[in-house]
Amino acid sequence: MTGRGWFSKTFGVMAWSTAKSSSLAANHGRDGSFCSGRDLARACQVSHYRLTQILNLSCLAPDIQEQLLHLARYSKGRAPFTEREVRPIAGEPDWDKQRTLFAKLIDQNDRTH
Q1: Is residue 1 part of a domain?
Q2: Which superkingdom heads the taxonomic lineage of this protein's source (predicted)?
């Protein structure tokens, strides 16, 4: 697979769920919100569990999210790192600590590729 892999899909779902929820809800006769996370997950065509993982990534510092959205494409092999490796970083509430952890992940990736 070429491309940015799971990051493009993950952040695509996050962006889609944020941008489209109002129009989807309006089309369903609602007030612009989904009744539950399960409804939103169904609309995004992902499991409720996966949607929770994706939305947790929105807890990342904005500059980290920006870096993830603009990762360089890769054409061979596996992604430089996985979403699973980023999850614990998103769980850290301090954005400065997130930046330190993310820099370590990037540095570790640079040494192995």
Answers
A1: no
A2: Bacteria
Rg of the chain taking only CA atoms, in angstroms: 16
Asked if residue 52 is part of any domain, the answer here is: yes
Would 108 be classed as within a structural domain? Answer: yes
The contacts found for 9-14 with CB under 8 angstroms, 24 or more apart, are 10/54, 10/57, 10/83, 11/57, 11/65, 11/68, 11/69, 13/44, 13/46, 13/51, 13/54, 14/54, 14/55, 14/57, 14/58
Is residue 100 over pLDDT 90? Answer: yes
Q: Is residue 86 one of the residues assigned to a domain?
A: yes
Please count the structural domains in the chain.
1
For 108, the domain range is 6-112
Residue 22 to residue 26: CA distance in whole angstroms: 6
- Sign of the C-alpha dihedral computed for residues 11, 61, 20 and 34 taken in this order: positive
pTM over 0.90: no
| pLDDT digits 0-9 by tens, 58-67 | 899 999 988 8
